[in-house]
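Morning, I've got a small favour to ask if you have a moment. I've been staring at a protein lately and its backbone has me curious. You're getting the sequence in one-letter code plus the fold written as C-alpha cells. I've dropped the whole record in just underneath, so have a look:
=====
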Amino acid sequence: METTGTQYLPSDYLPILIQFAAAIGFVIFALVVTHLLGPKRKSEVKDNPWESGVESVGDARTPISYKYFLTAILFVLFDIEIIFMYPWAVNFREFGLEGFLPMMLFLGVILTGFFYEIKKGILK
C-alpha cells in the first residue's frame, strides 16, 4: 500500500507572506516616521563618538587577549550544541534506542572537547 504525500498549494503560504509583508512594512513605516518627525539638532558635541558616556581616549586598536575571543567562541559552540539537543529531548520517546545511541555518541564528543578545554586551562 502506497501513501501519497501532502501537496502544498501556493495559497497555503499566503498567511506567511502576509505576515512577512506586514513586518517589513512596519519596519519601513517606523524608520520613515521617526526620520521625518524626530529632532534634527546637530552640534560638534553630539557628533563626537562616545561609549557609555565616557570620552574616547587613545587608539581603538589596542591589543586584546585572545582568551576573550576563545571564550566567546566556546560559548557560542556550546550554545549551538544545546540547540541540537532540544529537538531530540522533545522527541526522546519516539526515537527509542535508535535515537539514544547517536545522541550518547554526540554527548561523548562534546564532553571530550569540554574536558580537553578544562585540561588546557582555556576557561581560566
The radius of gyration is 26 Å. The mean pLDDT is 83.
